[in-house]
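User: Predict the structure for this protein chain, please.
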Amino acid sequence: MVKVVSRHSSDLSSILDNLDMNPSDRTTHLNALKMNCYVLIHLVEAFEIDSCKSGLAGLDPSGKSKKNCTTGSGFCWEEERQPLIHLLTQLLQLNLRRLWCGLVVEEEFISLVTGSCYRILEKPSISHQKHRAMREAVMHLLAVALTHYDHMLSATLKITQMLQHFEHVAPVFARAVSLWATEYGMKSMVGELLREIGQKCPQDLTRDASGVKGYAAFLSELAEQIPAIVLSNMSVLLHHLDGESYVMRNAILTAMAEMLLQVLSGDQLEEAARGTRDQFLDTLQAHLCDVNGFVRSRVLQLFTRIVQRKALPLARFQVVVSLAVGRLQDRSVTVVKNAIQLLAAFLSNNPFSCKLSCTDLAEPLKKEIQKLQEMRDKHTATTAALITPEEEWEAMQPELWATIHQLLHPLQGEEEEETLEVEETALNTAERIIQLLRKLNYKHAIRLTEMAVCHFHGMEPFTSSSGLEGDKETMILGILRTLYTGSNLENHIQQPLHSSGDEDPVIEEQPPSELVKQEMLVQYLQDAHSFSMKITEALSVVSRMMYESSVSVVQEAIEFFVTVSQFGVPQALHGVQRMLPLIWSKEPGIRETVLSAYRRLYLSPSGDSERARAESLVRSLSLLMVDASLGTIQCLGEIISEFVQKDEIKPPVVYLLWEQFTEKSQCSALERCAAVMLLGMMARGKPEIVGSNLDVLVMTGLDEKVIEDYRLAQEVCSTISKLSSSNKPAEGKNHAPFRLPQTHQLFRHLSEAVTTGFAQPSTLWIPFMESAITLIYQLAEGPEDICAQILQCCSQQALERVQEPQGVETEPGTSPSSIPGDANTLPTFLLTHLLSLVGNVALQQVVHLERAVSAELRRRRVLGEEQEAKKHVNSTKEQSVKSIENETTMEEDLGLVGASADDTEAELIRNICDTELLDGKQLLSAFIPLVLKICNNPGLYNDPALSAAAALALGKLCMVSAEFCDSHLRLLFTMLEKSTLPGVRSNLMIAAGDLAIRFPNLVEPWTPHLYARLRDPCQDVRQTAGLVMTHLILKDMVKVKGQVSEMAALLIDPEEEIVGLARNFFSELSNKGNAIYNLLPDIISRLSDPDCGVEEESFHTIMRQLFSYITKDKQTESLVEKLCQRFRTARTERQYRDLSHCLTLLPLSERGLRKMQDNFDCFADKLHDLAVYNCFLAALGRLRRSVTRPETKALIEEMEQKLHACHNHGTDSTEVPKEPLCQEEGKTPLPEPGKKRQVAGSCRRPMSIANRDADSSFITPQPRVPRRCRGAALRHSSRKPAITFSSDEENSPEDELYADLAEDETPSKVTPISRASACRAL
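Assistant: Here is the predicted structure, written as structure tokens:
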């Protein structure tokens, strides 16, 4: 059939050229043409249908399509289709009009041919790259139909229909329309299509989601390809910007951005084009605050492109930057991410400077503004001096004329107020008249001129040259003009009036353009300074986003700070340090982004040589560690060790650090200390960096000068300790641990440094001593012997000071009190050092036993078992069957023996700690009375440092033995509760947290007093308590129930750091299943209690944070039901309002609305309160805006009517008595004030009540002990004396219940305090 049509087409080319073709031949050829085309087109359609069917059938299970052949004879329709389209194109290019009588081709014929093209384009695979030639062929065929056969109207309708139903055709038709408009001159086609889309009803587009996507994609693609033609037809689409379809708004805004980038950019725009550009930019800026988050996000992306292409006018920089900073607070994660990207694009493409420090820009701006003011003042004076008298006269002439007319034609009754006298000479009179004119005293100047004309008649300058002697007004005005302009008084009057003649040449040398240049410079600096201020403002907002839940937002925030750092903004260093903890993130993407950020910031330093680059790298890293916290240094160490393992830090950097440490390279003390710290960080990645230079570290860092710089010696110890952590045996290998002999020079230097500095008052000695003792226990063989010698030596020094004669003057730092029973005093710092040393040795001894000794016992046992197993196997080799059976039995027995051996070893270690370490025969026991005496007498030993050291030593000694801990827990918690020193309370809070992990059963009864520290008046204590309770809760060391409300109250703490700590806690807690969902009802009950002390506005702030973690629909529905039911147990109006406010924070759904309706009786009688009523209306209003179903809207209206009726008239439902309701809800009656038992909703006592009076007794709650140990516990308790402070008196036992409960503790059993009270009652 193709051959038939091809031959007929070639024949028609010669036939149509014949002008004398008769009608019968024309009809014959026309019928032949119609029949051939009809058959051919229907064959095309048949093959297309068959091709689609075979294509679907040819899909293999993996989804890959096989080659599409319609027959097995080698015929492939995909290969034959394109030549056929070319044939039809050639046919239509002939002058087929001559075959029709009216020279108009029938529309049915054109529709027949073009219909096949549209059907080909309907196939989704046509958009694939392999069918590009086919698409081009179809486009050219349709172009011929448009240009030769008036197919525009039909094509417009067909294209709009296909865009509505087939999403894949949008880019195809965009390319086609672009081709028709540029190559075939069919620009009107663009206008018709845009007009057709513009006439679509916005409401219809909202309902037709698939159709609007096709239109939107078509508009965006078309504007990108032919923006100038689309611009001329843009007005027909603008009304869609006010429609509800956000997809269409996005498409139109994208088209505007393309026009701004390709057509309306540059400085050579005409006035009309500038106006259009400004209108488009105004529209884009307005939609940065669009109601839909997708539109806001899209506009930010468009502005990012505009800024990157440098198409945004400088005058709009500040406005757009401000809008972008505002979008950082957007609730949409995508909007926030794109806002950060836009700010980064502004930084990277800013026209101001490569350094945007506000401080660096403020000083030049101030100087240039001052210079501009001086130039303006000078220019103003110059301008005033250069104004000619004629110009001044022209300015004053109208007022002078009016004054002359008024004076010469006075009204009746007016009299002259003042009589003027003429001067002696005409020249003096003229000068006086000029002075009056300069003072704008026109009335007196005119009167004096009138008198002078009469007095000096005919004398110069009082003669009129105008020739109008009869017109007095004109004469006087002419004389005044002559006088003022100075035509006759050049040499006498004009010179003093314009006396700047000497300066004129100098002033004229300064061209006016200099002032313009200075104004431009000042404007430039002002814009740069404002831009820098906006970026600085954005830094604080973006830094808080580093710990958002969205990974993409965190990554964008990190990239933003990298960009800001490269532009020298000083505040960026805070953000760079803030991103350090993200190196521990569980998200691989965030961790890799942090590594990449530090790689770009620090591993690509500038410099001409390796040495210069190494110096730059070391300087940058050292600056990062200035005033850094311990956590920051640990994070930086992880990053640097990662770089060292990947060989990204070059050897010259390591060499430079060693040179700085050994002082071969000139550096300060801080730089030397930073060098040691960096070497320790690198040793985590490559231990040989330190291992090969251990002697250098010892001889240089721990020499006799250690007393001069304890900070350096401490860092040296920390660096050497990396050898211990890096030499752990690999898994599966049974190698002996890395240890150094006791005689190694390292331990000799450490012992000398500790004992020598013991007697010297230095605040840095204790941190150094702790590092030294820790290092000894990590690396020494038999570290207890070395530490015992250190303790004995230091104790001997203290005893020698005690035994000094009484007449010897004590040092200024000595304690004002003396030890009872002794006649001599001891310096406070010496006692503080001794207690710190004792506590640290005790703690490290426990760590050594439970880690090193236990691991060594296990290693030796496993080694012995392996050797015995080998011997056993060798001895029974001949009996193969029995050998196999015995081997299996042996392995099983070994497994059992190994498990029991582990328990035996652990029991051995615990027994040593409980019975031997603090036994009277041991060295540590000698210091226990001293520690207890200082702790029991806070009034006598009132030095803050000594009290803190004693408290910490007590906590560490409690870590050693369970028996010792049980005996002195009351003392420890008494100090925690009663001590007036924040340092003591902080130390004991940390110690109590450690004890809760080591001896949970002993500490569990005291957990309410741990929670009480969350209300401590001192910021540092509250922060420490928050950290401790966070660790205990997240490690599941305490159970969590409503007591976590104490932690929730930290969300309104006045200190931002504590608020951040609380937010991080709840963020981590939200990852533990439904923890927050389960706790919310109890938290609400506690915090809404009027006795809790949380204000209503603060309660709202807390709830907004907590409800942000409720994201599941089922949780929302359940909370709606629970909150509605809690209205029954609410007792005050404040609780009603709090519960209703919580309902507004939930994203109410249709099912949630039904839950609310089911529980309407629970809150119906509370709707008389206007605040409660408004909260329910707000929740329903928000639901109304988000639903579209008529049924749901009917439910909302019904609920609103019920609310309105109850609010205005009350409810008809029977009110249930409060007492039975309370019993039904809580299953127990509400307690009376005198009862000791507290319900879950008990009030949260403020600090003033928790530490109520000075006379409250501190009763020890009964700990949970095994039955076999109860007798021993009772015997111990009978011998315990009651510990009270000298200023304390006894309180009632009920006050014990007022201790605050920690947020992380949720005991499953009744509280030990209540249990103890029950025992006493019996």
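The chain has a mean pLDDT of 77.
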